[in-house]
Each structure stands twice: as structure tokens, then as C-alpha cells.
Amino acid sequence: MPSMDRTSAQEWLDRYVAAWRSYDPAAIGALFADDVAYRYHPYDEPILGRDAVVASWLGEDAQDVASSRDEPGTFDASYAPVAMDGDTMVAQGTTTYRKVPGGPVHQVYDNCFVMRFDDRGRCRKFTEFYVLRPESD
């Protein structure tokens, strides 16, 4: 895919959220290129390779850079593309967290993702930027 359009970009972001909700290794892996470089923060050394990213998402990373697995019903997210240029997409959105499923929202994060895609629509470079809203605890 030489360039992303808004429709394919939104579809990828929707699959990203669905993979997070399910923690299905195949759904997570389908998002990323074999040689993906993934950063939870812009200053991190990248997690390299699809299998390593899947392990990290599942909280199974032996290098102690794994994300923590969120309990079902305690989080939600909505992201949308804001800029696309060839194989590069920038997305913005929010992530909300609850202490217990169905409880009140206690944290809201504003997110920005910078991504590059391969010709099959899989992410090959991913960097996340996020900030906790001040009114969150």
C-alpha cells in the first residue's frame, strides 16, 4: 500500500482497539509487520519484531518493557487519523480507565500515535505519545 487513506487508517485504528480489548495474539500480530519497531514512549528503545510486540502486549515480555494487561471492562479508547502522508499516519484520541468494570472513569489520557506502514497495511514503526489529563487521579 503506497499510501494510507482515511478509511484504511481508521480501519487499522479500530482493529488496534479491538485487538487490545481481546488480547488475541493473532489479532495483535496481524496489525504489525514482521520487523516492526514499537515504542510505548518516544524515548524508549524499540521493541523489535512482531512476536516481541505480541508478547509485550500480553504482559509476557522478559525484558521488563511489557505493558500491563488491563482487565476487561476497565478501559476504552477511541482514535482517529489526523494526518497521512504516503506510508505515514498520525492519529489522535483518548483512552479512559476505570478502577472496576462499569465504575466511574478515573483516568483519561490524550494520545498521539506516529506510525509508518508497509505495503500490506501492517505497521512497521509505531511510537506513542500520551499525557494524563490533569483532572484525572
From TrEMBL:
It holds the Pfam family SnoaL_2. Residues 14-122 form the SnoaL-like domain. InterPro entries: NTF2-like_dom_sf, SnoaL-like. Gene3D superfamilies: 3.10.450.50. This is SnoaL-like domain-containing protein.
